[in-house]
Amino acid sequence: MLSVGGNDVREILGAMHELPAKIAAFHDNYPQIAQACEASGARVIIMLQYRPDLATDLQHYGVYRAIEAGIPGPGDRVAKLNQLMQTIYPNVLATAAAKGWDVLDLPNSFDIHDTSLYRCQIEPSARGGALIAELIAHTVLNRPVVAGAKLAALISKAPLSRVGILETPLVPAELLGGVEGGVSPDSWCIDVDLVPESQQLEPHLSTGGTAVEQQFDADLAAALAASVADHQAAHCTLVLDSSFSTQRCNLQRRGAALVEGLEAGKPRPGFVHQLNLFDQFHSSFNEMILEHATPSAICGYIACALARQLNLRLRPADGSCAAFSQLTNLDALVEELRDGEALKPELRAAMIHIHDSRERWIEAHADQFPDESTRREYLSAWVANYEISDYLRSQPAADVDGVVFLRFNQWPERASATHEEAARLAVEEARFGGSADGDKADVTRQTDASDNYSMFVVEDFGADANDIEGPALRTPAEWLGARVSDDGRRRRPKVFVLDLNGHFCVAVPHAKGKKVPGGLECCLTLLNTTDGSYLGGSGGLVSSVAFDLAFPPISCG
Fold first, then answer.
1. Same-domain check for residues 461 and 543
2. 298 with 196, same domain?
3. Residues spanned by the domain of 210
4. By C-alpha distance, which of 330, 338, 302, 328 is closest to 314?
5. CA atoms of 231 and 112, how far apart (whole Å)
6. How many domains does the chain have?
7. Angstrom distance (rounded) from CA 505 to CA 539
8. How confident is the model at residue 276 (pLDDT cuts 50, 70, 90)?
9. CA distances from 98 to 42, 92, 187, 357, 364 (A)
């Protein structure tokens, strides 16, 4: 069963400007993958990726939101995703047609309006898994392999009407006219509006058939049960031990990501490390998630809690704000916070604060929430930048003095903002520019001097924000100037909250004196709560800026 490519797009949801390069790489790699599969001597069946769930887009990966913002041109988010698949898959289907490989057409089998088919937006639920298994069983049982014979390719789908399984001959374009009812790689498309959005139908599962089929059904039921167990076990390890590292010089900024006040100098030598502490999707957080109606992705709440706790625990005994954290202290704290248990009281406080704030907005804007469904959707949406800001600003100044929130300017994404986020963007971030709509992390964005565009926004808390009414939001250049104290020395941040464009983490700068250019051995350590790396794409961009704000390039002081 050959099914690849879906994660290629998932990995760049926060950096959709990389999509053309990803598509080109996919088209280069796919023939090699197909050749390796063929060389194995096994029968190959190609499975096209299904489209993600639409209704839970805000609560989980935001696939449709990223597609809508990151792909220019006409059409809504669903139409753009359909067109993307119809652009990528003809080459895959051409391979299948040429080699006589059957194809499972999941894009035309999964109803994106039926949430019961999905888990966490992009994973199949038990129902979704049963639908996939039915297609596999149909193809395997009804299309037995004959030694030495080449099959004519069929493309199979379970239509949204769930009436059996439809098979269509898949033929090369030049032979399409000679095959009645056939489809060619270039004529394949995603069916739309086959059933009303509200229609929820059960997948068709065979209950009769031969003894072989009945035994297969029994095996299939056992396999599905095992699959569900495997899925639940995917996040069974709470404490993570993965880490990633790169030199600062490897994190290059270009185009719209260039930062006034930082680009003229040479970055200081040093490293950016990422330590993955614990898995935010582990079941140990489920009770809190249900109690406070949060999304399953709780990185925003964790960033609030972790930033404040690190700031408190790294503070010297005399209460002063240290220039930099000591690495030995940080190592001890990492171990103390490794399982997330010590964070839970603060994590719960962040969840309550944000939930109560959203309840107040709903109460004051009842016309925006006509039914219980829209209310629940708002309460369980991902944490927004302004909500992290509000939580940290609500804390005693001494507790957050030294915390810095480095975030992407969201004004370019104002078209997709709703409710309080839309109102806050207009008041707080319009001045940072970005007249054209699109992905906030798009380094290819075209700007001019009149736009006053800054890709990044820096926010202070505590003493550094006391003289500012409302959020203390600055461009990096403004922030660098504001951090110089009366005696001419630069006041250093202790803890960063980082907006990774679809995910949040915290980072701690630390350094020690050394005879190297710039006089410091510099390091920025990201503390993350998933098992992946964020040192590339949008994460690499914002990490490079955080490093340079903590350790300004040599010519910048």
1. yes
2. no
3. 6-233
4. 330
5. 21
6. 2
7. 10
8. very high
9. 16, 10, 15, 58, 61
* Cβ atoms of 400 and 308 closer than 8 Å: yes
* Rounded CA separation 390/353 (Å): 9
Please tell me the least confidently modeled range out of 225-239, 428-442, 497-511: 225-239
Per mean pLDDT, which range of 391-395, 456-460, 533-537 is the poorest?
A: 533-537
358 burial level (CB within 10 Å; 0-12, 13-18, 19+): buried
- Percent of the chain with pLDDT strictly greater than 70: 80
Q: Using the structure block, give the residue that is written with the tokens 């503070």.
A: 315
Does a structural domain hold residue 238? no
Same domain assignment for residues 295 and 228: no
Q: How far is CA 438 from CA 60, 61, 199, 306, 426, in A?
A: 20, 17, 33, 30, 16
Amino acid sitting at position 81: L
The one-letter code for the residue type at 523 is C
**Token pair for 509:** 């700068």
Q: Are 511 and 330 in contact (CB under 8 A)?
A: no
Q: Are 85 and 64 in contact (CB under 8 A)?
A: no
Q: What is the mean pLDDT of residues 129-146?
A: 82
Mean pLDDT of 175-195: 70
In a domain, 531, yes or no: yes
Q: From the CB of residue 166, how many other CB atoms can be counted at a distance below 10 Å?
A: 15
Tokens standing for 427? Answer: 């008041």
**Backbone dihedral angles phi then psi of residue 168, each to the nearest 5 degrees:** -130, 130
Q: Do 270 and 208 lie in a common domain?
A: no
List the structure tokens of 370. Answer: 């006509």
Task: List the alpha helices (DSSP H) in 58-201.
Answer: 63-70, 77-99, 126-142
Identify whether residues 121 and 264 lie together within a single domain.
no
Residue that is last in its domain, among 193, 211, 233: 233
Residue 143: strand, helix, or coil: coil
Say which range, 18-27, 377-386, 389-398, has the weakest mean pLDDT: 18-27
163 and 213 together in one domain: yes
Q: What is the pTM for the complete model shown?
A: 0.61
Residue 225 domain flag: yes
Rounded to whole angstroms, the Cα distance separating 464 from 483 reads: 8
User: Which contiguous run of DSSP H or E holds residue 474?
Assistant: strand 472-474
pLDDT in tens, 460-504: 987 766 666 667 899 999 888 887 655 555 677 889 999 999 899
Hunting for tokens 């998630």 — which residue is that? 289
Q: Answer with the one of 233, 267, 287 that is the final residue of a domain.
A: 233
In a domain, 218, yes or no: yes
Work out the pLDDT band at 42, boundaries 50, 70, 90: confident
299-313 helix and 327-336 helix, angle to the nearest 10 degrees: 130
Residue 348 sits in the same domain as residue 260: yes
Give me the pLDDT at residue 441, please.
Answer: 82
Do 217 and 304 lie in one domain? The reply is: no
